[in-house]
Design goal:
alpha/beta; 4-stranded antiparallel sheet; Rossmann fold
Length: about 400
């Protein structure tokens, strides 16, 4: 109990900080699906948690919706569920109180004989009362039928599908990347692949903005008042380089401050995908966006889409001169390597939703190859890493932002 109280104090300090909680928007904390059913049937329970959270975000757009999985990711506690021991409504409400959440969604899955039942309860945490509950929904077990049951339960509580909300305003120079699923990594037959590119299904559940080009020297100078680039003579339209991962994080935080948005990094620690400001793309978001629906090693002929060692003249070039991919993104392959948000590490087994990588590590992931590297590095699945303090004439980046 003492350990739990200490954790609650930490959560309160983290979430009630003005930079981490938007006071003008009511918040919902979605609990893990509670069940006594054996783990075999719920071997992908995190996936079902993600389905529920996504359905609530769609049905209740006026709320800021956070799952326990988001919470674990933001606080970088790998075993948050076990350490919290959260198996009751009261326990979940106590965690919600620590985070400052206004409401709680408590989902429960039950089995009686060969029949399964699902119900969610929507609780006003501050008034300690139930706002509404879904019907006790009976179904036969399969992943597909359970997904439909989740959607029906959410519709019971939140009134069905909302009127279409206006498309989010896309920042100038950015592309809106819609959610979807893809196979991350490379097949064993792909030329140049490494052993750390194990293929696995990844689902991106949140739309996000991604800069159409790498950050240029002119854009860096406008925000940071300097130009660290080795190839400064290339001009304002060339990618900024010789920036470390920490430099890139300083830039996106400065850009967020400039536009009056939440800063997504606090002393180098990522606040999570719910943050409203600019950030670096996750490794999964980067590959999803780079592929733009392609399953090939590259989204086009290499000479047409990229500056690499065979055509660069051993230097960087102005951004946007090569052909973009199908989603309007330039230089995802070549010109400069691009920092991503993730620590470098092996991919986990199984399907994932909105992965943010390891909790810690020695190297941050860079993607895309660059002007001085060859064909092997210049692939959508190609992975590499550097110490986050390293500044190299081959290292740049492009910002992302979750589309709220």
């Amino acid at each position: 109990m003492r350990r739990y109280r200490l954790m609650s104090v930490f959560l309160a300090v983290f979430y009630l900080c003005p930079e981490t909680q938007a006071a003008e928007q009511k918040t919902i904390l979605v609990g893990h699906i509670q069940t006594k059913i054996k783990a075999r049937k719920l071997k992908d329970r995190d996936f079902f948690d993600t389905l529920l959270t996504t359905a609530i975000r769609v049905a209740a757009p006026k709320y800021s919706v956070t799952s326990m999985g988001d919470l674990a990711s933001q606080l970088e506690f790998e075993h948050l569920r076990e350490r919290m021991g959260c198996d009751t409504q009261a326990c979940l409400a106590e965690i919600a109180g620590s985070t400052g959440a206004d409401f709680v969604v408590f989902p429960k899955l039950m089995q009686r004989g060969k029949r399964f039942y699902f119900q969610i309860t929507f609780i006003d945490r501050k008034r300690s009362r139930v706002v509404s509950s879904s019907s006790l929904l009976k179904f036969e077990w399969s992943g597909e039928s359970f997904e439909a049951i989740i959607e029906k339960a959410v519709a019971d509580v939140f009134g069905g599908a909302p009127a279409p909300s206006p498309a989010p305003a896309v920042p100038n120079g950015y592309m809106l990347i819609q959610p979807g699923s893809f196979m991350m990594g490379s097949p064993s037959s792909e030329s140049g692949r490494d052993n750390d590119e194990k293929q696995h299904r990844v689902t991106i559940t949140r739309p996000f903005f991604l800069k159409a080009t790498e950050v240029t020297q002119g854009e860096w100078n406008a925000v940071m008042g300097s130009n660290p680039s080795k190839f400064s003579s290339c001009g304002d339209d060339c990618p900024v380089e010789k920036v470390s991962w920490y430099d890139a994080v300083d830039y996106v935080n400065a850009l967020s401050r400039k536009e009056g948005l939440e800063q997504c990094y606090h002393f180098g620690r990522f606040k999570g995908l719910s943050c409203k400001g600019y950030r670096l793309p996750t490794e999964a978001e980067w590959e999803y966006a780079a592929r733009a629906g392609s399953t090939e090693a590259r989204y086009g002929d290499l000479n047409s889409i990229a500056w690499y060692n065979n055509n660069s003249g051993r230097k960087t070039h102005p951004v946007g001169e090569k052909k973009p991919n199908a989603w309007g993104l330039f230089d995802m392959i070549g010109n400069v390597w691009e920092w991503t948000n993730d620590w470098q590490g092996d991919y986990p087994d199984g399907a994932l939703s909105d992965p943010v990588g390891r909790k810690s590590g020695s190297f941050r992931v860079r993607r895309g190859g660059c002007w001085s590297f060859g064909v092997k590095a210049c692939r959508a699945a190609g992975r590499a890493g550097n110490d986050p303090d390293v500044r190299g004439k081959h290292l740049g980046f492009r910002p992302a932002r979750t589309a709220h």
